[in-house]
């Protein structure tokens, strides 16, 4: 596929969508070497900087394990790998949205990129029928409160952890892990809610509590004028629906017949900016200031999501 | 007033899934359904609680999606018992 690059006047070899996908892939590769064993550059750097001795794998930054420690009375310290990671992750989400999910998380990226290899007719658009925001916030609440009621929803439910087991080879040696419900997680993450879901990020959209935490902070932060967010210029939008089709989280939709304005769900958006990259009229931007979604009038809040597929066709 | 009712209905619709998943997670954790790993460090599998949660959530999503799809087919506009999901009220 080729496309005219208006800035250079040359024919680009890739469409903006594919070019931006490649650009995002660099971020996910970086995220992998930063957070995943055996590299864990993030943990190693923070260990050296803070004098901490956290384990050099993804568990050093795990929200659940550290929360359990907090409930157990071990307390919270900013000058630890987890404390610093937690503050940085939360702060970045508050200021610029879930950038970790959208630009660094290799687990979410794997299912998204693999799903692009599968024809659309084999995929289910779950978000078209079921609102993921409520479910993921529910998981977050349950996930955070589980240690307080004396239980735990743990690593077998974590796609992030599962990926590290695959890449470090520990998946094949830990037969106990494989005989646990982790297999179900893998099937949901990579299968039903992965490659066979439109956008490929069904697991992120419905089940990831870390993403929900960041989305909640983003929803709060986006109300402030100095934070970065996906901004919309309704006057520039041509309702071409390219952004709707490209959004991996299915956070954008158009009404039937494109009779209403574009609708955006900030609670599922991961600010990957794929929509911004493919928006030729420049109606979508990632910038500071008022978001522009509020200027559409009240009617847009009642668009049946079931129309999205037709609008995007 | 009408707008407020509409917003409340939307919020309730959104909260329904959240209440279900939160209750499910907590109930599974509190009853220690299956064996759960307390520290997450054993490396030998965190038991079956996660599977219960995951499968139940997936089943819930599938049933809800199926119901809405069927009701949309039966009444292509809006169905009273299973309305199609609405947009995020916070962005309006």
Question: Any overview of this molecule?
Answer:
The complex is a heterodimer of chains A (313) and B (92). With 313 residues, chain A is mainly alpha-helical. Chain A has 17 helices and six strands. In chain A, the strands form three sheets. Chain A has a two-stranded antiparallel sheet. A two-stranded antiparallel ribbon of chain A has the order 3-6. A two-stranded antiparallel sheet of chain A has the order 4-5. In chain A, helix 6 (106-115) packs across helix 12 and helix 8 crosses helix 14. Chain A is globular. Residues 297-313 of chain A have low confidence and may be disordered. Chain B is an all-alpha fold and 92 residues long. The relative contact order of chain B is 0.11. The longest helix of chain B is centred in the first third of the chain and has 29 residues, at 2-30. At the A-B interface, helix 3, helix 7, helix 8, helix 11 and helix 12 of A face helix 1 and helix 2 of B.
In brief:
Chain A has 313 residues and is mainly alpha-helical. In chain A, 50% of the residues lie in helices and 6% in strands.
| Percent in helix of chain B | 55-70%
Helix and strand run of chain A? EEHHHHHHHHHHHHHHEHEEHEH
Biggest β-sheet of chain A: count, sense, barrel?
2 strands, antiparallel
* Count of domains of chain A: 2
The total count of helices of chain A amounts to 17
Give average pLDDT of chain A, whole number. 85
Residue stretches of chain B low in confidence (pLDDT < 50, at least 5 long) are 38-45, 77-84, 86-92
Multimer state:
heterodimer
Strand line-up in the sheet with most strands of chain A: 1-2
First-residue to last-residue Cα separation of chain B: 16 Å
Instruction: Give Rg of chain B in angstroms.
Output: 18 Å
The most extensive interface between chains reads: A-B, 69 and 63 residues
Strand tally of chain B is: 0
Strand fraction of chain A: 5-15%
